[in-house]
User: Fold this.
Amino acid sequence: KRPNYLFELPVALENAHNRIQLAREQAALRESEARFRRLAENAQDIIFRYEFMPQRGFAYVSPAATAITGYAPEDYYLFKVILI
Assistant:
């Protein structure tokens, strides 16, 4: 023990609490993302995410695109839209 260690204890406890809370939130986020991924991968509709910045293009296209359009999701990742 060093002098005045009790004054540092509340900060240490708060930091520990915050790290535990962050770990729980990250685990919940991973689980939520996994559920969404399972939903998107098995949906019969096309689900996609299109990004405008930093570069325009498809960030995600569900596998249903192949059955509906005949193009594989990978084909959409190569497609770039030029807007004037």
In short: Strands lie at 48-51, 57-61.
